[in-house]
Amino acid sequence: MLKTMLFTCGLIVAPLVASAFPIAPAGTEGLYVVATGGEVTATYEGNSASWSNDLYLVQTSGDVFLFNNHASSVGASVVLGTFAAGTELIFRLFVNNNGNSYYTGPGSRNWDGQAHARVQTDYMPGTTLVSFEDGGDGAFNDLSFTFTGTSAVEEDPGSTVPLPAGAALLVTGLAGLAGLRRRKGKA
Predict the structure, then answer these.
(1) Which of 10, 139, 142, 167 could hold 49 in an S-S bridge, CB 3.0 to 4.6 Å?
(2) What is the separation of C-alpha 136 from the centre of its chain, rounded to a whole number of angstroms?
(3) In the 8-state DSSP scheme, what is residue 24?
(4) How many CA atoms does the CB half-sphere of 187 hold within 13 Å?
């Protein structure tokens, strides 16, 4: 009867489909993943992608392979190492089918200008959930993984990291010297 009433009112009832693996919620696209200080562990949570995708931790010395969405077992974990608090961890999804790469963080990092990762802080206590979209349907279900020792932030971590005390003193001193030099030139 309820279904008939809803249909009569012009409402379409779609069944709710629960995912067998976690997907970070809408509104968390483009957030940065930062270390909270200490050891960081990545755990593969699952996917429903037809394309084959590899996940890498981006490093200046060369990206480190973590998981493949078709070959890795759900629950597989990798210790990424120890990171100082505030260190941004950038992850790259490589789509084997077309050669495209997508990165965590803002859409400006990606060739198409779109954010391809959702990042949810405290998915579980002390655990961040990241869900990637490989460019297909926008469902962010192509590779999901969690991290311990991380959180999500909205602002670029590079702009929020304070200068070390010595560097701050040096900048203050240089500014003071520049001010003295200007005064001397006017006298």
Answers:
(1) 142
(2) 18
(3) P
(4) 6
pTM for this model (two decimals): 0.74
d(CA 145, CA 96): 18
Place of tokens 């779109």: 114
Domain ranges (residues) in the chain: 18-154, 163-187
Does an H or E element contain 178, and which? Answer: helix 165-186
What is the per-residue pLDDT across 79-126, written as a single tens digit (0 to 9) for each? 999 999 999 999 999 999 999 999 999 999 999 999 999 999 999 998
What is the architecture, at CATH level 2, of domain 18-154?
Sandwich (2.60)
Structural element, H or E, at residue 106: none
Strand partners, 101: 94
End-to-end C-alpha distance for the chain, whole angstroms: 92
